[in-house]
Amino acid sequence: MTAVLVVDDDLTVRDVVRRYLEQAGHRVALADNGEDALAWVAGNSPDLVVLDLMLPGIDGLEVCRRLRATSTVPVIMLTALGEEEDRIAGLSLGADDYVTKPFSPKELTLRVGSVLRRAATPPPPPPSRVLADGDLVLDLSARAATLRGTGLALTTREFDLLAFLLANPGEAFDREQLLERVWGWDFGDQSTVTVHVRRLREKVEPVPAKPVRIVTVWGLGYRYDPAS
Predict the structure, then answer these.
(1) Which Gene3D superfamilies is this protein grouped with (predicted)?
(2) Partner of 223 at 20 to 30 A CA spacing, among 52, 106, 109, 143?
(3) 94 and 158 share a domain?
(4) Are the C-beta atoms of 64 and 90 separated by less than 8 Å?
(5) Is there a contact between 126 and 140 (Cβ–Cβ < 8 Å)?
């Protein structure tokens, strides 16, 4: 039985989400503020956290930031309608998905199941164990990346995305394809691809605002153009 922590300061939301998740076979813990949520995670090992962004005291973004400093537990954010900047910020901090309020408890339950399946079965890496493009080298066995001989600090998702693009040079992919083929997501927020592409460009492009490796294919998505 998977353990899910639901963090929301609205009693009604907590109760409804708890009942739906328990009916789906999950064990549910509840918290109504960020401090209690962080303390509960520190003393337990949840399989997933459902996290509202608008919390008293420590808000959801700060909770997500602190979680990611010590844990890879999947996080689904609950956000208010129209708060796109907060959603993008949460995804940048490592949240796995988001649901916009008001939401369907049934949809949230399905998303919880989907994120848990993705976390349990990460996609296999490309067949080649070393990928290289000039001064950019990815060692898939060690999951290490270097640029001009210097190590790159990449998150798991950044590494997987860069490895996929590098293994398929010159081929354009839309964001839905990248969600499915890189991370095995059957549905999810496509803006997470945009966020991770931007972060990768900041790390591998000479001028991130004018990318020459991870280029935008207007009206479609992205393509990797080899430098060498």
Answers:
(1) 3.40.50.2300, 6.10.250.690, Winged helix-like DNA-binding domain superfamily/Winged helix DNA-binding domain
(2) 143
(3) no
(4) yes
(5) yes
- State the residue range of the domain holding 41: 3-120
- The CATH number assigned to the domain holding 51 equals 3.40.50.2300
pTM over 0.70: no
Burial class (CB in 10 A: 0-12, 13-18, 19+), 122: exposed
**Residue pLDDT, tens place only, 54-98:** 898 899 999 998 998 888 899 999 987 666 677 777 777 788 888
Structure confidence by residue, pLDDT tens digits, 91-138: 777 888 888 888 899 999 999 998 898 777 655 555 558 999 999 999
What integer pLDDT is reported at residue 124 of this predicted model?
Answer: 59
Contacts of 80 (CB under 8 A, 6+ apart): 53, 54, 86, 100, 101
DSSP-based three-state secondary structure for 111: helix
Count of domains observed in the chain = 2
* Domain-embedded: residue 88: yes
The rounded Cα 188 to chain-centroid distance in angstroms is 10
Is residue 208 exposed (0-12), middle (13-18) or buried (19+ Cβ within 10 Å)? middle
